[in-house]
Structures are given as C-alpha cells and as structure tokens.
C-alpha cells in the first residue's frame, strides 16, 4: 500500500480530519492532503511525527513492514498480559481456520475413496465435469454450498463433518 493511502487510512481510523492531523504535526491541511494524494513526500522528521501519533513504526507507515504493533506504553503488566493472550488466541484461531480448510479438501477426497467412487462418478452426482471436481479436492476452487449439501446428503454426513468443523459424522435430525 502506498504511503498516502496508508496515512489517510490511519488518519480516518484515528478519527482525525486533515486539519487536526496537520495541527498535531505542525503543517496545514493542504500539506496533509498533498501527502495523502501522493503529490508530496514527507521528510524523515515528518515520518517520525506521524509514527508517534499513530503508534506505529516508520517502516509500517511506508509499507515496508507488514507486522502491526500495539502500543502498550500506558498499560500495567496485567493488562499487557491480557493483550498478549488475546493476540495469541486470535493467531491460533487463524491457524486453526487454515487447518480446517485443508481438512475439508482432504475429507471430501477421503469420503469419495471410502465409497469406492471415482472423481468422474462424483462429478456426475454433482452435475459437473470431473476437472471441476478435481479442483475442489485439490483446493484450487471453492466448492459452492449447493455442491457441499449434495455431497453431505449423498454420503449421509453432516456439513459440519464434511467441512471439518466436527468429528461427528451423524447429521442432526
């Protein structure tokens, strides 16, 4: 992302107008506008001022660093521990989501193989070409919900099982 777009995004997230941000860094509203429109580049000193206001690194402002940081300067140790715990929990949840997605590709292939079906046969059940179904199993194409429902009905398993959200195969009836 370009510096100007990043600056504008951060300014808006902070609830500041161009005039308010300009006042905080010692320039006019029009200078902030020039930065946001990429018509001017800020000096290193100005970058440092923006970084301090938005509690980010200058690398982040320039788009060189993809990691975001959270300023915990005024928090006590207990609050910092809570923030760290929340961040780690969200990261684990994100990793789990990727694992579940991989499980779902694997699971539809396993269900097909356990039923001694070929990709051609399953594709026929879904009313699609074998090449499309093959992309589903490889994760190269997203499976439409209607096809997931057909597969779950055909194999007599729940959608939650098919998509890896549960280990229980039985449908809730």
Low-confidence stretches: none
CATH class annotation of the largest domain: Mainly Alpha
State the end-to-end CA separation. 49 Å
- Beta-strand percentage? under 5%
CATH fold-level name of the largest domain: 434 Repressor (Amino-terminal Domain)
Overall shape: it is elongated
Number of domains: 2
| Helix percentage range | 55-70%
What count of helical segments does DSSP give? 10
- The number of distinct β-strands equals 0
Order of helices and strands: HHHHHHHHHH
- Give the CATH H-level superfamily of the largest domain: lambda repressor-like DNA-binding domains
Rg from Cα: 25 Å
The CATH architecture of the largest domain can be given as Orthogonal Bundle
Biggest beta-sheet profile: none
Structural class label: mainly alpha
Kindly report the average pLDDT value: 82
Summarize the structure.
The chain is mainly α.
Structure overview:
With 173 residues, the chain is mainly α. It contains 10 helices and no strands. It has helices spanning 3-13, 18-25, 29-36, 44-54, 58-61, 77-114, 119-126, 130-138, 145-155, 159-162. 11% of the residues are buried.
Secondary-structure blueprint of this entry?
Blueprint: H1 3-13, H2 18-25, H3 29-36, H4 44-54, H5 58-61, H6 77-114, H7 119-126, H8 130-138, H9 145-155, H10 159-162
Helix pairs in contact: 2-3, 7-8
